[in-house]
């Protein structure tokens, strides 16, 4: 009798694998990880204490409804509690958003290049990805996206600011785009890096969502709030979208450690946003220095910069690594570098200056 392997869904064939940012190599001279857009600051003492206290009960399941956290988010952002849905990182919520809207035969649209989880989670649902190229300036081409909408489009991600380019779309163009999207197509404004935005013309998605039932906003505690390892993110969305997210979320997907640390982070927001301010200063310094060195770098509103190096991407990534900084190359396209500790940024800038001279 021939043994057959379990039948798996054909949709999973050829699915791209998510490439996490590489950690710094152990044993190197100095090694900084600038490859995952993480927050370089260690946890605040009070936040750490709340997670440690929660750890004392990890024989128990967490609060499945994330009641305390949802209340805190609703109050902080001035939205109804029913409009808040939490998940295992914002990528978990993004996956629920697709599962709630799109299956085989449906289309999920997003700019490309953008957050590399989008094609993966779209394909897991069996939906078809529609990738609309960024403009020459590495910004979302919202006109082209509006034109690419078909009757099969179910969900559109607008990653603002965009990962990995850092570029952001502004209020007028985004509103014009939203006006063109049919009301039965969900637009997800992925604002994982919202707290790093300093351009006043880049709109806060939560303001846009209020009057638009087909707009949902994704936020995370992983970046500005420094809880990447605890896995908690959320969406703000109208009913019935928020209710669908609660149905499709992995039950008990947000640990009590994550819930309590997220609540403590919201309560310590002033201090955390002060750190974000320092990172924004560093970002501006890195950006300006790169421009002064002669690089072409798009304006960034996030905690990273994007260098479109084309065929020389791998070579520059290797030079950075040799110098002690691990960056995130996208082979043949470009390289994303997270803003980290001042010493790490200096090391990167030094390497970039030397490399540019050899171009
Ligand atoms: C644009 C964007 N959205 C969502 C995420 C997911 O973050 P998390 O799942 O940690 O909340 C990331 C992480 O890098 C991101 O860059």
Automatic annotation (TrEMBL):
Query: What is a single Pfam family found in this protein's UniProt entry?
Result: Aminotran_1_2
Q: What class of enzyme is it?
A: transferase
Give an example GO molecular function.
histidinol-phosphate transaminase activity
- Membrane listed as a keyword: no
Regions of biased composition (Basic and acidic residues) lie at 1-12
Which co-factor is required? pyridoxal 5'-phosphate
Q: Which residues carry this modification: N6-(pyridoxal phosphate)lysine?
A: 223
**Per the similarity annotation, which family is this?**
Belongs to the class-II pyridoxal-phosphate-dependent aminotransferase family.
Would you tell me the protein name for this molecule?
Answer: Aromatic amino acid aminotransferase
Organism, as annotated:
Streptomyces subrutilus
Upper classification of the source organism reads: Bacteria, Bacillati, Actinomycetota, Actinomycetes, Kitasatosporales
